[in-house]
Each structure stands twice: as structure tokens, then as C-alpha cells.
Amino acid sequence: MKPFTALTLFAGIIALASADNYACHSNVTVGCSNSASTPVVCHSRYGGIENVESTIQSYINLNLHKSYQYLLLSSFYNSYQKNRPGFNKLYRDLSDRSFDDAIDLIKHVTRRGGQVDFRAISQHPNSIAQSRLKLEEDELHSLGIALDIEKTLTADAGHVHYQSTHGRPHDPQTAHYIEEKFLHKQADSVRKVSGFVNDLSKIMNQPDPSLGIYLFDQYLEKQ
Fold this sequence. Notes:
Elements: H1 2-31, H2 49-77, H3 85-111, H4 118-123, H5 139-166, H6 172-204, H7 210-221
């Protein structure tokens, strides 16, 4: 009796699995058809990506905008008048990082079945076309600008994380991605740049800070 019961149960499981497989196959076949009247269901969108996609779009734009600002600062300190290779290197590295972060965010959106609207980037108030940056600042004030940029990037990463966890439905995969890729790194960056600001402010308070600024620039070049 037991072998018969086991065989019946096994056959039932196989039948259910087969039915599920055929049902899935049928749905995929219909959903992926090229008919204009058929709703598209063959995509990688799931969870709460709709609730956070526009926020990620804004964060992409912010990273591109800040990358451009850092590039301006880098070029300014690379001129023959300023000749600060250490500051040039610092701001070029930060520019490259923000640009790479924007590319990574674009990949995240497309991986989740979304699209990035580059027209929105060009029309956004924080777009590159709208960028305004005073380049007449000295080294200390330029570091103050960098610290403000890093805190802005950190705050916006936190906003994306908040939207991912508090939206309904929430999107845990995006929340984990932002936490792993951005929040930890931004905390380290804010700490590093704030340290530079405090160190250089002590040097600038000296009667003749020119040698100290030169040595500080050499220190940045070796980082």
C-alpha cells in the first residue's frame, strides 16, 4: 500500500510541475508576442523600481553635474598660473569617480528594465549646461566647495535609499545596491575631504602660508 501511495504522490507532483511549466510557457509565449494589442510582460522590472526610478534619474544627473564641476576645478589648478598638481589630481580623481558612478547608476536602471531619459538630464536645473562655479577661489575655499559637493552627493544617495525602503512596494535590491556602492564610499569621502579642509585651514592661518600650501599640494599629489 505504501509503495502505491508514494507512486501516486510522485505522479501528482510531476503532473503539477508539468502543468506549471506549461502554464509559464504559455504566458511567456503570449506576453512576448509582437502583437501591438498584447501587453508587454517579458521584462526585468519587479519590486518597487517604479517608485525609485525617477529619484535615481535625478541622482544620475547630480553625479554628472558634480563630475563636471570637479573637472573645472581640476583644470583650473592645472594651469601655469596656479600650478597645483596635487589639487589637480585630487579634483580629477573626484571627477572620474562621479562620472563612473553615473555610468554605474545607468547600468543599474537598465538592468532593472528601465530607461534613462537623457533629455531630462540636459533640462534639469542641475544640468551641466546650468553649471556655475567660481574659479577665483583659493585652495582652501576650493576644498570647501569639494566638501559641499561630497555632502550633497551623500544626502542624495541617502534619499534614493529612503525611497527604496519606504516606497510601496519597496525595492530592497536598489536599497542594498545604494548602501553597498555609495553610502559607505561617500562617508569615507566626506571624512577625507573634511580632514583636508581642517589641515589646510591651520596652514592658511600662518603669517606666510605659501610654503605650507606648496608642501600640502605635494602631499595631495602623492595620495
